[in-house]
Design brief:
The protein has 234 residues and is mainly α. The protein contains nine helices and two strands, in the order αβαααααααβα. It has one domain (8-228): Fumarate Reductase Cytochrome B subunit (Up-down Bundle), CATH 1.20.950. It starts with a helix and ends in a 6-residue tail after the last helix. The protein binds protoporphyrin IX containing FE (2 copies).
């Protein structure tokens, strides 16, 4: 092999468009939910609409974890403790480079999605000290609503902690391990050494995949629309 070969790279496709759109929309909307809850005055109505939209996005991602392209599927990236330990000990998969979340990263993806479910779920029943309340607040007693509101506030701090860990981990992989993760989450493509063997080729979204996308997006959109319609603002 010549020195030139060793340094040459090729591009492989890692993330489909729906995963990338989900990710960056989530980042913008979480920033919006924080601004409308903690920074701006009288913005709780906006906060609830943004929160319900985040709920729709997460619902979509859960369905996409079943119907999406190869790297988007939970069955492909959620691994047991054995695989996580092997990864931590630096053992590579024998059948080549795996594209997508690594076993440890997958754990943080699951944690982030679970925390988001709790955040949105509790928000639906939350209330503030004045007139604003989540769309399902009336379905529970005031004691329960108070408790869910405190979980909503506490869970937000947990979410912030995991987001900080997540961004730290991404920069560790990009800056220290020189992995092309950030470009992959933006463009969908990643650069890998030309001679790297892949576990299997990353799949592209084909016609059936786009049909699944439309169905998942329509279901998530309809649920979010219905919930948003129950938001009452004074
Ligand atoms: C509100 C803040 C954020 C949240 C809640 C969040 C959440 C997530 C989630 C849920 C995933 C999994 C994607 C999927 O499979 O659907 C992910 C992946 C990823 N995120 Fe974020 N993210 C946040 C901010 C950021 C920022 C600021 C960056 C860039 C600096 C970033 C870079 C990435 C990258 C590169 C991946 C792919 C990691 C991999 O290759 O395994 N994220 N993020
Ligand atoms: C991921 C999405 C969400 C995030 C990050 C988030 C974050 C927050 C935060 C940080 C607060 C505390 C503000 C304070 O300290 O006073 C808050 C309050 C609140 N949130 Fe959310 N929230 C989300 C989703 C929702 C949803 C879906 C709803 C309802 C539709 C909702 C309804 C409320 C209400 C009514 C309060 C007022 C509680 C109070 O200030 O006493 N949130 N949210």
């Amino acid at each position: 092999m010549t020195g030139n070969d060793r340094h040459s790279v090729r591009r492989v496709r890692v993330w489909d468009l729906p995963v990338r759109a989900f990710h960056w929309a989530l980042v913008v909307l979480i920033l919006g939910s924080w601004l409308t809850a903690e920074v701006l005055d009288d913005a709780l109505a906006w906060h609830m609409y943004i929160g319900v939209t985040i709920g729709g996005l997460v619902l979509f991602r859960l369905m996409w974890g079943i119907w999406g392209s190869d790297t988007a599927r939970f069955a492909q990236f959620v691994r047991g403790p054995g695989a996580i330990l092997d990864y931590l000990r630096g053992r590579r998969a024998l059948d080549g480079l795996r594209l997508g979340h690594n076993p440890l990263g997958a754990l943080s993806v699951v944690a982030l999605l679970a925390l988001l479910c709790v955040q949105v779920g509790t928000g639906l029943f939350a209330e503030d000290d004045a007139f604003s309340e989540g769309p399902f607040n009336e379905l529970v007693s005031s004691g329960t609503a108070e408790w869910l509101t405190s979980v909503h506030k506490l869970n937000f701090n947990l979410l912030l902690g995991f987001i900080a860990l997540h961004i730290g981990a991404v920069f560790y992989h990009v800056l220290i391990k020189h992995q092309d993760l950030l470009r992959a989450m933006i463009t969908g493509w990643m650069r890998i050494p030309a001679n790297a063997r892949l576990h299997r080729d990353a799949s592209r979204l084909r016609f059936g995949g786009w049909v699944a996308f439309i169905v998942a997006a329509a279901i998530a959109g309809a649920v979010a629309w219905w919930v948003a319609g129950r938001i009452v603002t004074l």
